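Q: C-alpha cells for this one, please.
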Amino acid sequence: MADYSRLALLVSDSERAQEAAEDYRQLADWVPLEDADAAVVLGGDGFMLQSLHTMLDTGKIVPAYGLNLGTVGFLMNRNRRADQLLGRISRAKPHTILPLAMEATTQDGAVVRHCAINEVSLLRETRQTAKIEVSVDDKVRIKELVCDGVLVATPAGSTAYNLSADGPILPLDSQLLALTPISAFRPRRWKGAILPDRSRISFKVHESQKRPVSAVADQKEIRDVAEVHLEIARESALTLLFDPGHALDERIVSEQFVF
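A: Here is the predicted structure, written as C-alpha cells:
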C-alpha cells in the first residue's frame, strides 16, 4: 500500500464542497500543494481538471485522489465517510494519464502553448464553416475538411466532448488518440480516425481571415489560429488515484454499454 505522508487538500468553491471540507480538514495536517506527496481534490470533474492544470502550470505534479462533490464525477471517487479517507488513499490504485501538448500559431504569428487533459478542439468563430487541412506525421491526410470544427481526444477525454461529437470511446491503456470531426460537410462520409498516441497531428486553417478558427485546449481558448500542432506530452504524465473496483479504465468500458 502507498504511504502518502504529506497531503494537500484542494477544495472547489461550490457550497457542497466547502461544507464537506469542514469534516476533512480535521483528519490530517494538510500541507500546501508545493510540499505535498499527493493531493485530495474535493469537487467535480471540472475542478479536478482545474487542479491537474494547476499542477501542469506550476510543474508540481503529484498523484490526485478525487472525491465527487459535483455532478458526474467521472474522474472522481465516491464521497463516503470522512474518517475512511486516509485508509482509502493508502489502498487506491494509480492510473496514468498523458496530456496533449498543443502549439498554436495565430494569424499574427504569436505562438501559444498549452496542455490538454481531455481534448484539443478547433472551432469556427463565425457563421462561416471552417476549412482545415489535416496532417498526421507530416503527411497531409485531408487537404480540406469543411466543418464546424475538429478535435483530438485522449483516452481519458474520449467520453467527454469527443463522445458527444460521435467519436469513439478509447480504453485508458489503449495508447490511442481519437481524431473526430465536428459537423463535417466535406468529405461528408469521413467519421474520423483512431491514431497511435505517438502520432504528431497538425491542422492548417485555410482562408483564416474569412473563416476564423479558435483552438481550445480543455478550457483555454486561443482565437484566430493559423496552425495547430499536437503531440502527447510524455514528460508531463499525471496520476489519478481510484478506489479498487472504481477505476477509470472500468468506467470507460462501462460507458460503452450505457443506452
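A few notes: The helical segments are 15-24, 45-58, 85-91, 161-164, 248-255. The mean pLDDT is 92.
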